[in-house]
Specification:
Length: 119
């Protein structure tokens, strides 16, 4: 089953860019990525640009409305994701706990729907 690990973090709690702490966090991400490759479980994953680049869309009364920024009001921002092919939720949670940003925010683990059972 595929699981999406959504990485939410509070930018006020994360190490600042360019600091030794930031470099250590990024080293943790590089090590995590290598583990995923070695374990042959990675399907996809990317970092996201900052929330200042986001545009949200909804349809209200048949009209498309767009607004700058993310929809939800929250301190934690969605900063990236991984999609992993894993046997069960317990395994997904074990990998989620290895993501460095778990120390600064929340990792949401969600199974993906499979609308194509043959594929």
């Amino acid at each position: 089953m595929k699981y999406m690990l959504l990485i939410y973090s509070d930018p006020t709690r994360e190490p600042a860019y360019g600091t030794p702490e930031f470099q250590a966090m990024m080293g943790g991400y590089f090590a995590f990525n290598e583990k995923l490759k070695a374990d042959d479980v990675a399907f996809d994953g990317e970092a996201l640009k900052g929330i200042d680049t986001a545009t949200s869309l909804r349809i209200n009364g048949g009209k498309v409305e767009t607004m700058d920024g993310p929809f939800a009001e929250t301190r934690e921002h969605l900063g990236g994701y991984y999609i992993l092919d894993l046997p069960d939720l317990d395994t997904a949670l074990r990998y989620a706990a290895m993501i460095p940003s778990a120390a600064y925010g929340t990792i949401e683990v969600r199974p993906l729907m499979n609308y194509n059972p043959a594929g």
